[in-house]
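Supplementary Methods, section 5.1.

A reviewer requested that the exact input to the structure prediction be made available. We therefore reproduce it here, unchanged from the version used in the analyses.
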Amino acid sequence: AGALSLDAALEWDAARNSQPMAVRVKASRLALDGLRLGPARQPLAQWKALELTDVDLAWPAARVALGTVRLEEPRVQAGRDGDGRWMLQTWLRERPARAASAASEASAAPSTPDTTKAADAGPASAAPAWQVTVGEVRIERGGLRWTDRALARPVDLVVSGLDLRLQNLAPLAAVQPDMPLALQARLAQADRGGLR
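The structure derived from this sequence is encoded token-by-token as follows.
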């Protein structure tokens, strides 16, 4: 659960002649406050506020620019169980055996001239690589509880007071710009009270 608010504009240009459809979304502010995931008494992930400012998304230009991403008081509980399964693996559904065997049979089937030609042709036109930039990422008063029961000596750690500031983030850029980083946090062995 959480509350979403935004101030945005949508520009849509229909496809004409050889020009493809184009969509552009600009938002001066997008916020998702009070998000909680998992059991109500002890959520696995939650935050007080998530705010994105100066959002500019262009498609099919494949460009996303964000001025600021600010995450206030995030709390996450993560880890592995005694069998070495990650927490997220328990959330995923198992793939049905019938669908898995049908997929393996399809991949083992001999290729016909038509399927070979289609595979050799490749995409009709290569889509542009996505460009993603973020002027500043801020995490304020964050916390993480990390539990790892798969180790010979189980680990139960708490990271608290996490403050992070990262500038000029360009995660998909071939050449990374300088990204000033400031980080502060406290690390301690967890008590039985959990993450506060």
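The beta strands are 3-13, 22-37, 45-59, 63-72, 75-80, 131-148, 155-169, 181-189. These observations are discussed further in the main text.
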